[in-house]
Amino acid sequence: MTATSRLPVEGPLPALDGATAWLHSEPLTPAALRGRVAVLQFCTFSCINWLRTVPYVRAWAEKYRDVTVIGVHSPEFPFEHDEEAVRSALDGMGIRYPIAIDDDFALWRALDNAYWPALYFVDVDGRIRHRHVGEEGYERSERVIQYLLGESGVRDVDEGLVSVTPDGVHLAADWASLGTPETYTGYARATGFASPGGLRLDRRHVYARPDHLRPHTWALDGAWTVRARSTTLDEPGGRIVARFHARDLNLVVGAHDGTAARVRVRIDGEPPGVARGLDVDEQGDGHVAEPRLYQLVRQQRPISDRIVEITFLDAGVEAYVITFG
Question: Where is the Thioredoxin domain (predicted)?
Answer without folding.
Answer: 1-150
